[in-house]
């Protein structure tokens, strides 16, 4: 994941964990902008490092569209120069407010996949996603989405689930469907404030930090998050399987099948999703851009060397090896794998550190969805579509409704 504009952004979202990362570079003369030397070094090394048939570049932020089209035109030219015929794909995550016809024509012509950050309808989106002036950003984001449709640019959505919009699951889900998002990612906010933070320094604690810190005000309540996922799953499983895709559901189905999940969050180990900052600095993960997780700089060491370093290998293994005993014997371990290490800030009932903050909500959710996952996995194993779960589900609910109606008519107690 590359940060061509560092943590700079034209919005000032209350919950953003990345805006404060500019404090890591207080004397930066580049103003948090990746120069051509760093860009070419990154592209060359990343293509060389990638072992996949398709080399996928992910441009992230901050807000990467604070860089002009000239930067990305140069990036594409360098990909062609160093790619030597390999298939290359570009994905870019944006808040959508800076999109215009020129940008969308560019993305269409170069087949970019665009990720749009949108938290639901206006009442949910604008609760935290605003400009520094506190002006709403919803209208500009929606205008950007309309332009993506106009120019036939493929896009998906990333929605941050926080203490507020977690209470509006179906409003969020139906809104995303209505704006044409067929691929959705829901990312829960879990943050702690560092009680020892110095003015001008980083205010948030890394998920693995041992010292305590108060949970941030925007952090989602665990049970609210579980109920959020359940409400969306119940609607999805009745009518949307195979038409709309939710990353969390895809991961759980993959784990039920015993195949690698599409994202590292639900995998047994991690460590493959490093971050390259604007100046070539490499960190272990997007959620671990802290001094303790600095790996080195691509101007001084090769990207493969940094990502295969003993420190980074251990970072990835710790996702599994640092699980508390409480998790190791959990009935849902095969689905969860402890989820993301950044969220492991709670204490187990036995007093062990390292429990995922969202654990109570996850258990509620996993217990609810497991029968459906088993059914879909069985269908796929027999080369039948997972969407068969819809008729199975609707038949089950129909029989349940009839039985409850019968009991009501006869006056029997259920």
For the largest beta-sheet, the strand count, sense and barrel status come to:
6 strands, parallel
Find the structural class using helix and strand composition: alpha/beta
Overall 3D form: globular
DSSP helix fraction: 40-55%
Strand order, largest beta sheet: 1-2-3-4-5-8
Number-wise, the strands total 13
- Distance linking N and C termini: 54 Å
What is the residue-mean pLDDT, rounded to a whole number?
Answer: 93
Order of helices and strands: HEHEHEHHEHEEEHEHEEEHHHHEEHH
Query: What's the gyration radius in Å?
Result: 22 Å
Poorly predicted regions are: 398-414
Number of helices: 14
Proportion of β residues? 5-15%
What does this protein structure show overall?
- By secondary structure, the chain is of the alpha/beta class.
- The chain is 41% helix and 13% strand.
- The strands form 4 sheets. It has a 6-stranded parallel beta sheet with strand order 1-2-3-4-5-8. A 3-stranded antiparallel beta sheet has the order 9-10-11.
- The longest helix is centred in the C-terminal third of the chain and has 23 residues, at 359-381.
- The radius of gyration is 22 Å and the shape is globular.
- The termini are far apart.
- 41% of the residues are buried.
Give me the secondary-structure topology.
Blueprint lengths: L35 H14 L4 E6 L9 H15 L3 E8 L6 H9 L3 E5 L4 H7 L9 H13 L4 E7 L7 H10 L4 E6 L3 E2 L20 E2 L6 H18 L5 E2 H11 L17 E2 L4 E3 L10 E4 L5 H5 L2 H12 L3 H4 L4 H4 L9 E2 L5 E3 L3 H23 L6 H23 L4
Compact description:
The protein has 414 residues and is of the alpha/beta class. The protein is 41% helix and 13% strand.
């Amino acid at each position: 994941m590359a940060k061509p504009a560092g943590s700079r952004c034209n919005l000032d979202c209350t919950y953003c964990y990345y805006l404060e990362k500019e404090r890591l570079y207080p004397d930066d003369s580049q103003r948090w902008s990746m120069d051509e030397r760093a860009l070419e070094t990154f592209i060359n090394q990343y293509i060389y490092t990638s072992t996949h048939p398709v080399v996928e570049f992910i441009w992230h932020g901050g807000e990467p569209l604070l860089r002009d089209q000239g930067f990305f035109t140069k990036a594409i030219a360098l990909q062609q120069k160093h790619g030597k015929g390999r298939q290359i794909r570009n994905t870019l995550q944006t808040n959508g407010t800076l999109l215009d016809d020129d940008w969308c024509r560019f993305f269409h012509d170069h087949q970019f996949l665009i990720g749009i950050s949108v938290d639901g309808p206006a009442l949910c989106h604008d609760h935290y996603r605003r400009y520094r002036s506190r002006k709403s950003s919803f209208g500009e984001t929606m205008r950007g989405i309309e332009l993506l449709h106009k120019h036939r640019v493929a896009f998906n959505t990333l929605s941050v689930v926080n203490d507020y919009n977690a209470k509006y699951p179906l409003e969020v889900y139906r809104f995303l469907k209505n704006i044409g998002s067929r691929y959705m990612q829901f990312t829960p906010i879990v943050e702690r404030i560092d009680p020892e933070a110095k003015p001008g320094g980083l205010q948030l604690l890394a998920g693995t930090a041992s010292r305590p810190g108060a949970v941030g005000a925007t952090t989602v309540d665990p049970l609210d998050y579980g109920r959020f996922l359940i409400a969306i799953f119940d609607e999805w499983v009745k009518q949307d399987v195979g038409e709309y895709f939710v990353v969390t559901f895809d991961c759980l189905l993959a784990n039920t099948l015993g195949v690698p999940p599409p994202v590292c969050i639900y995998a047994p180990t991690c460590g493959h999703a490093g971050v390259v900052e604007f100046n070539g600095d490499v960190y272990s993960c997007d959620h671990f851009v802290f001094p303790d997780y600095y790996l080195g700089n691509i101007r001084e060491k090769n990207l493969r060397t940094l990502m295969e370093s003993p420190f980074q290998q251990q970072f990835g293994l710790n996702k599994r090896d640092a699980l508390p005993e409480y998790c190791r014997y959990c009935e849902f371990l095969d689905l969860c794998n402890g989820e993301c290490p950044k969220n492991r800030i709670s204490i187990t009932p036995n007093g062990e550190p390292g429990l995922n903050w969202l654990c109570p909500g996850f258990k509620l959710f996993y217990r609810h969805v497991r029968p459906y996952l088993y059914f879909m996995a069985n269908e796929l194993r027999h080369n039948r579509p997972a969407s068969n779960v819809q008729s199975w589900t609707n038949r089950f609910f129909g029989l349940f409704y009839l039985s409850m109606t019968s009991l009501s008519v006869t006056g029997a107690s259920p």
